[in-house]
Amino acid sequence: MPNTRSAKKQLRASLRKAERNKAVKSRIKTEVKKFLAYIEAKDLNSAKSQISLVCSLLDKAAKKNIIHDNTASRKKSRLMKRLSLLESQMLTAQA
To answer: Could you tell me the pTM of the whole model?
Structure first.
């Protein structure tokens, strides 16, 4: 339990920031799940539009230090790899 006024204020600010960070992380997870569902359904157009949203959210979270820069880059890389794999499968299926 904080003793000083400034410590109490820091606690309040910390709780506010933690709540905000939790909301951002939750939104990222939700959008990633949607993207992965599009990949599983082999819906290329929806997956392409969703990946831009996911990348944007990851970049914003990294910029605000909610997640580490390298974590955002790693997640984007892995998701893009899944998208390019789907694209190549679609191209070979058409040929």
So the answer is: 0.88
CA distances to 12, 53, 70, 92 from 65, in Å: 19, 18, 11, 40
Could you list the residue range(s) of the whole structural domain that residue 47 is in? 5-94
Torsion angle defined by CA atoms of residues 55, 61, 65 and 69, in that order, rounded to the nearest 10 degrees: -10
Provide the domain count of the chain.
Answer: 1
Spacing of C-alpha 19 from chain mean position:
17
Q: Which residue has the tokens 């893009």?
A: 80
pLDDT tens for each residue of 18-45: 999 999 999 999 999 999 999 999 999 9
